[in-house]
Amino acid sequence: MGAQWRAGLWAPSAGSVAVAIGSERSIPLLRGDNGFWEACFPAEEGEDYSFIVDGIRYPDPASRLQVSDVHGPSRLVSGADFEWSHSWRGRSFNEYVLYELHIGTFTSSGTFRAAAEKMEEFAKLGFTAIEIMPISQFPGSRGWGYDGVLPFAPHPAYGSPNDLRQLVNTAQSHGLCVILDLVMNHFGPDGAYLHTIAPEFFNPDRHTPWGAAIDFSQNAVRQFWIDCALMWLNEYRLDGLRLDAVHQIQGEGAPEFMMELGQAVRKLDLGRPLHLIVEDERNEPTLRESGLYAASWNDDFHHAVHTSLTGESQDYYVSFANEPIADLVRALERGHIEEGQPRIGLDTPRGSDCAHLPVTSFINSIQTHDQVGNRAQGERLLTLADEKAVKTAYALLLTAPYTPMIFMGEERGAVSPFQFFADYDGDLAEAVRQGRAEEFAGIAALGESVPDPIDPATFRHSRLDWSPSPAANDWLRLTHQVLAFRQAAIFPLTATSRQHSAAHVVGEKALTAHWQFEAGELIIDLNFGEIGRHALRARTPDFALFDLKRDPYALAVWSKLT
């Protein structure tokens, strides 16, 4: 008869619920308290199943694996057949150097197994963690992953659940932590059957920019997402999660949910530290002050660097384009730039004081999937600015004490684009095409077309180029050199608390920054467009890129352990 399985479904307004095993068996679920339906039944692992709600078949909203696409039956899997090859104790967060990657475009085959083959190389370069863009199953074969509809199930185009476990196993065997990007603020537009199974899951009075808002006032909704997070951490031995756009987790119950989720993760005893990262546009300290969340993405640092190097001032760059060097000074001294103060180009002040937080709680970057992919053509920074300028910004990112993150390809000076792509059919495909074109209507008016997100060629153009070249080798040498310096000189500092930080301009486009930690100090002198009036130092720098006295883009770093 097989193993015993337990089926549960929250469907408060349903009149009847059953679970269908294959095409021949149907087991009715009994309605319990608070809209939950439950039953236990025997079945073989690997059998197909569906929920039947008021006579209509649906995939399991918490499916661990689909038979095929998001519209068909689910499959019974336990994950018990995978053997981890070694123990893993994780890393302290101050040692994180994050590498963000998209499985589908990271390699030519776009699979978990192909990604695993690259892990040794990244560990040797000096990276300590990978952050995988969302892999929860979405419609079609290609997409960024932020329109997932089955949040518990790995996307089958990338491989099987055990292929994902093997990627994690391989990464950790080389000392790399694995963070997974998880979307809890909305579902994609096609295949999210929770809308009909349990319309109570959503708040009809509110919408996110990407679809119906989730109602976090419901205990069952909060538990669904907590169970999802714990599943990924437990069943795939992840080191943590990056939670997408938590500023859209709003409404009654949302603050309580964020605390309940953090507490549930903290209670896990898995023999390794677990780290929660958020994307949060609000620049508020609350989640990080709770001690439950390790860090937040810090777009402010990116915007200051980007406007300095490109001169761009459109859209969300408006408030950062006025005094980008002064903003960069503030980012290096405090972490965030916008902390509630009035700013030119900002209609409503944003943020609160966060300078008291640990430096590791700010994840800085100069490129991300968002900042590259949300451009009309998906251009990387190297195609928009001078190479020496970009190298200097890259070295600054990796030598400043804040937690650095790079986007796949930066380590080798990639210039291949990362464009927006999806795989929809019919009216939805046309709506996505039109929406993307309208987003960049100003560019279209100038005669430049926006890549068709539905065209498979857009996906292919976004694949990372692994071709060897002298330019790529030069960037790889820089990456290895600066990350070796970070491991030796900065990890010991950020393992202790920051006591003081200060930064100031030493010329219109030059600055100096100084951080004091319990374990010692770190000083960075930077030319970011012109040769600065830097103070004389008593000794040569511990790390340098280009020449501060001669080059308009240059950086020098001094580190001292007490």
TrEMBL record:
It is an enzyme of class 3 (hydrolase). Its EC number is 3.2.1.141. CDD domains: AmyAc_GTHase, E_set_MTHase_like_N. Its main location: cytoplasm. Pathway: Glycan biosynthesis; trehalose biosynthesis. It is found in: Cytoplasm. Keywords: Carbohydrate metabolism, Cytoplasm, Glycosidase, Hydrolase. It holds the Pfam family Alpha-amylase. Residues 100-436 form the Glycosyl hydrolase family 13 catalytic domain. It catalyses: hydrolysis of (1->4)-alpha-D-glucosidic linkage in 4-alpha-D-[(1->4)-alpha-D-glucanosyl]n trehalose to yield trehalose and (1->4)-alpha-D-glucan. Gene3D superfamilies: E-set domains of sugar-utilizing enzymes, Glycosidases, Immunoglobulins. Coiled coil: none annotated. Belongs to the glycosyl hydrolase 13 family. This is Malto-oligosyltrehalose trehalohydrolase.
